[in-house]
C-alpha cells in the first residue's frame, strides 16, 4: 500500500481506493447468489443505505435498515444503543449498500469491533435486484416475528 503525504501537516495517509482495498482484503465478501444460504443459516442482512436512497431504489424486505452513521453503535453487543439482535460477537452480519462500496468499509469497521463474521455483499442492493433476490430477507426469523406482530394487532 502506498501512502500520500499531506503537504500541510506532513502526515501520511491512504487514498480512499487504498482504504477500500485494505478493507476488502480483510473480508470474505458475499455474492448475491450466496445470500439465500447465508440467511438460511441465520445471517442478518443490514441495509445501510440512507432512507432517501431506499425510497428511490427500493426497499430490501427483511433487512434491518440501519443507516451508516449509527451502524457500529447498533451492532456492537457492548453498546448501550445496540439492537436486540446484537447478542454477541458471533452474529453473522451481511452489510448491504447500493453498489457494495460503502458496505465494505462498514463491514470492516464492524470487524474492528470484534464482529468477526461481518461481511458485505458484492454489488450491494443492485446485485440483489439484478439477480431477482430482493425478497430473500422475508424468510428471516426477525422479519416473520415483525410481520406476525403486525397481523395480530
Description:
The protein is an alpha/beta fold. The chain has a single domain (29-151), classed as Rhodanese-like domain (Oxidized Rhodanese, domain 1). The chain contains seven helices and six strands; from the N terminus they run ββααβαβαβαβαα. The strands form two sheets. A four-stranded parallel sheet has the order 4-3-5-6, covered by helices on one side. Strands 1-2 form a two-stranded antiparallel ribbon. The protein is globular and about 60 Å long. The chain starts with a strand and ends with a helix. 29% of the residues are buried. The mean pLDDT is 91.
Mean pLDDT: 91
Low-confidence stretches: none
Number of strands: 6
Count of distinct structural domains: 1
Structural class by secondary-structure content? alpha/beta
Secondary-structure element string:
EEHHEHEHEHEHH
Radius of gyration: 17 Å
CATH class: Alpha Beta
Tell me roughly what share of residues is in helical segments.
Answer: 25-40%
Shape: globular
Biggest β-sheet: count, sense, barrel?
A: 4 strands, parallel
CATH superfamily: Rhodanese-like domain
Q: What is the count of helical runs?
A: 7
- Beta content: 5-15%
Give me the CATH fold name: Oxidized Rhodanese, domain 1
Task: Write a short abstract of this structure.
The protein is an alpha/beta fold. It is 38% helix and 10% strand.
